[in-house]
Design goal:
The structure holds 2 protein chains of 2 kinds. Chain A has helices at residues 8-40, 44-54, 58-75, 77-86, 88-107, 114-144, 164-188, 191-222, 232-248, 252-274, 298-325, 332-335; strands at residues 277-279, 289-290. By secondary structure, chain A is mostly helical. Chain A has a single domain (8-327), classed as Formate dehydrogenase/DMSO reductase fold (Up-down Bundle), CATH 1.20.1630. In chain A, strands 1-2 form a two-stranded antiparallel ribbon. Chain A starts with 7 loop residues before the first helix and ends in a 5-residue tail after the last helix. The model of chain A has no long low-confidence stretch (mean pLDDT 92). Chain B has one domain. The mean pLDDT of chain B is 92. Chain B is globular, with a radius of gyration of 23 Å. Chain B has helices at 2-44, 47-81, 83-117, 124-153, 172-176, 179-210, 214-249, 251-258, 291-297, 307-318, 327-357, 364-391, 414-445, 453-460, and strands at residues 158-161, 166-169, 269-276, 281-288, 396-398, 402-403. Chain B is mainly α. Classes of the chains: A mainly alpha, B mainly alpha. Chains A and B meet through helix 2, helix 3, helix 4, helix 5 and helix 11 of A and helix 2, helix 3 and helix 13 of B.
Chain lengths: 340, 462
């Protein structure tokens, strides 16, 4: 490509990578918390502690996804159209998961019946597992390349998306988010919930490093399009090695920072590895969607840039403030309703 | 096969959008009401207002949850089911969606979290500001999604690029100052106040009939009546204005809404018609002479175009085809919407009148009307209004620019659409059960005995 990298299309490609990074970093631990809910919360009070660690902030975290989706639509409508119609059934399952999970958070504790609460706990678990796994599969397919035809349409059908490499990426994202969630719980909860989260984090960190190492090696073999992401994938695995050490050294806050850095590094590696493609065609490289042939016009990108430049910092400020307000650990005393 | 996928995709869009739109108008209005109540509590220190804030706040949250999660589908389905449409309009249509997320969704979700969980952690003034920000966020959300929606009704500020075959943005300012948008946006905001007002009045009426929680419920009924009256009058006024914009830019929709086959001067307003589409006329039609002229241009004898001449004109401009929307749905949808709105004005006016006379709790017939008639009118008016405006635009997806046919995703087989259509419909139907159950449960339970913000805190956490 001779357009270079100093252009609006590339800027928006980077911004979309940033939005996905924000989503995976923030909602990643929400998913992890939801996945660990049945294992770490043994009774109702404990489960309420687990849920309330993310209670005030999960919804704001999810908006990173909506913004990433909206930004793809606005900046790269062809990418949005091809990917969302092509990954149709996967997205359908993700949506089902996000719907039941969101309602479950809000409704679960509004009735004392244990059957009611068990049902919503199940919804939280399933609604966390599905997206945590399927987003990995989707990005695995983006890395690997999919069957894009001359018209820029995805023509590979559903089953082609469930190839071994992408499924491995799904497992990797599932386990990485679970670890991220365990570390988040170790920072945000008190008592037995916190202890269990720490216990779980150690073996999880080893398993995650193993799965990610496998995914890393396979990724180097799998991809030959776009820019070579250099040592980034290796760095991601190395960061997880540090996480293992940190969990055994009981430095959980640092461990959380390092799983966060792993997520940042993996997303960066994926996006750098694709660039300038946004969807690589396995039929003919000439059919690939790129940041240039899938983008909106300069005017739209300019308007969007101005809006993003003003409002992304504002969002970051108030969202950080909300984390500051709820910085305290959640314990059983916070969730017990005083008897009237 | 291709047509089946199109049909299913249209049904899916209709079902998920109407369902989403049952919850959202309540959110649009009730957040403002809760913000006003909490602020009143801050200024008066009267715990009755705190109890009102908590009671209506809980109902707000039960409603909010479904509105939020069904909204995610809205953003994704354009790409999933309508990829050809998305490619064609993305340059214009995507931007307001992204801006909506960035400007509105972040504010709503972050500050709602702070409101729910911040009762003890935030100073009371800061806490009240969080719900005001949520209310502002819902309004901003309505604005940006209507920027996108109004553009489909009345495309402005774009050029067609013959090379790519796509619509491209030409003038952003023109898009966000479109007269269609500035009729639809206030119409929608007033709808929110009217819908939330009717729901709150209905719930208050139930308690007043049972003669319980009188202090909170009398005040709530007064709040709700005022919101309902202002809201429904605003809906009628902006609806009238919207109708005039429609006559100008979408005359076919107005002709369809009136089952007006021939150009008329003066044009009469139809009260009851039975169509005869085979012969392009009405078999039966009961009318108010000059009524439609009055509505369309504020005088008694202007000309209003009819379906037959508009169809001929469209054929001339766009080639052969049937450019007439589904008349049964548009005609009766329009009437159901206007009827529901009128009933809401009546209930709101009676509520305010009885409140001023201090007899709000005494008229059992009125309380029954507010409970059953008011709440039903809110839902019926919203659903039919939405269906009318969307189906009245057909066969166009972007009015006079792009036909709906052929804009669904070419690579998505009917089977996939079946799966998601059935999946979403079943899931939405199932979710309605706990939503209604919780709403009724908390509505019936009534307000508590809270006297300080700390009392509220414990009952709000998950």
């Amino acid at each position: 490509m001779d357009q270079g990298i100093l252009n609006l299309e590339t800027l928006w490609f980077v911004l979309i990578a940033v939005l996905w990074t924000g989503f995976f970093f923030l909602e990643g631990f929400d998913f992890g918390v939801g996945i660990l809910l049945p294992f770490i919360g043994k009774d109702d009070d404990e489960r309420r502690v687990v849920i309330n660690t993310i209670g005030p902030t999960w919804d704001g975290n999810e908006v990173w996804l909506l913004t990433a989706g909206g930004a793809m639509f606005a900046a790269f409508p062809i990418w949005y159209a091809t990917m969302f119609s092509g990954f149709y059934l996967a997205l359908f399952l993700i949506l089902i998961g996000l719907i039941v999970r969101g309602v479950a958070f809000e409704y679960r504790s509004k009735s004392p019946s244990s059957e009611w609460r068990r049902t919503w706990d199940g919804a939280i678990f399933v609604g966390s597992v599905l997206p945590a796994f399927l987003f990995g599969v989707a990005f695995g397919n983006l890395v690997r390349g999919v069957q894009i035809d001359a018209a820029g349409e995805y023509v590979g059908g559903f089953w082609a998306l469930l190839n071994p490499y992408s499924l491995l990426m799904g497992v990797a994202s599932l386990i990485l988010f679970t670890l991220h969630g365990a570390l988040f719980l170790s920072l945000k909860s008190k008592g037995v919930v916190c202890d269990r989260a720490m216990e779980v984090a150690r073996p999880l960190s080893i398993a995650t490093a193993g799965v990610l190492a496998l995914a890393m090696v396979w990724s180097y073999v799998q991809t030959d399009s776009g820019v070579v992401p250099g040592l980034l994938p290796i760095a991601a695995v190395a960061l997880l090695g540090v996480v293992i050490w940190l969990t055994y050294a009981k430095l959980f806050a640092w461990a959380f920072v390092f799983t966060g850095l792993t997520i940042v590094t993996v997303v960066a590696a994926i996006f750098i590895g694709m660039y300038p493609n946004v969807m690589t065609s396995t039929i003919d490289p000439a059919y690939s969607l790129t940041v240039f042939n899938a983008s909106s016009t300069t005017m739209t990108l300019q308007i969007m840039s101005i809006v993003a430049l003003i409002f992304v910092p504002i969002v970051l400020v108030y969202q950080s403030w909300s984390y500051w307000v709820f910085r305290k650990r959640v314990g059983p005393e916070d969730v017990r309703t005083p008897a009237h | 096969m291709e047509d089946l996928a199109l049909l299913l995709a249209r049904w899916q869009f209709g079902i998920v959008t109407v369902y989403h739109w049952l919850f959202v108008p309540i959110t649009l209005g009730i957040t403002w009401m809760v913000a006003i109540m909490e602020t009143t509590w801050l200024y008066t220190k009267n715990p009755v207002y705190l109890r009102m804030t908590k009671f209506w706040g809980k109902l707000m949250l039960i409603n909010f949850a479904i509105g939020v999660v069904t909204g995610i589908v809205q953003e994704f389905q354009f790409g999933m089911n309508w990829s050809t449409y998305s490619r064609f309009v993305g340059d214009i249509f995507g931007a307001p969606l992204a801006i909506e997320a960035l400007l509105a969704f972040f504010i709503e979700s972050t500050f709602l979290g702070l409101w729910i969980f911040g009762w003890k952690k935030l100073r009371p003034t800061v806490h009240a500001i969080t719900i005001w920000l949520v209310a502002f966020g819902t309004m901003a959300s309505a604005f940006w999604i209507l920027v996108a929606g109004s553009w489909m009704q009345y495309p402005v500020g774009y050029v067609l690029n013959p090379e790519t075959g796509r619509a491209e943005m030409d003038n952003f300012l023109e898009i966000i100052t479109s007269k269609m948008l500035w009729a639809q946006f206030p119409h929608t905001i007033f709808v929110g106040f009217a819908t939330a007002g009717s729901l709150m009045l209905g719930v208050s009426a139930w308690h007043l009939m049972k003669k319980q929680h009188l202090e909170v419920m009398r005040k709530s009924a007064a709040f709700a009546s005022v919101a309902l009256l202002i809201g429904s009058l605003g809906v009628a006024l902006t609806g009238h204005w919207l109708g005039q914009v429609m006559v100008e830019v979408q005359p076919m929709k107005m002709a369809a809404a009136e089952a007006l086959w021939e150009d008329e001067q003066p044009a009469s307003f139809s009260l009851f018609a039975v169509g005869d589409k085979e012969n392009n006329r009405n078999a039966v039609n009961v009318v108010i002479p000059s009524g439609l002229s009055l509505l369309s241009c504020n005088n008694l004898d202007c000309e209003v175009r009819g379906i037959n001449s508009l169809q001929a004109e469209m054929v001339e401009n766009h080639g052969p085809g049937d450019y007439i929307p589904n008349l049964f749905v548009t005609y009766w949808g329009f009437r159901a919407m206007v009827g529901a709105g009128s009933l809401m004005i009546l209930i709101g006016a009676l509520g305010v009148w009885f409140y001023l006379r201090g007899t709000l709790a005494k008229h059992r017939w009125f309380l029954l009307l507010a409970l059953w008639g008011g709440i039903a009118a809110g839902f019926v008016g919203n659903a039919t209004g939405w269906i009318f405006t969307e189906l009245g635009r057909q066969p166009w997806v972007v009015y006079e620019v792009l036909l709906t046919r052929g804009t669904n995703s070419p690579t998505v087989p009917a089977l996939w659409v079946w799966i998601s259509l059935i999946g979403f419909s079943v899931l939405y139907a199932i979710l309605a059960v706990p939503a209604v159950y919780l709403f009724v449960k908390f509505a019936k339970a009534g307000p508590g005995e809270e006297t300080s913000n700390a009392d509220v805190a414990a009952s709000m956490v998950y």
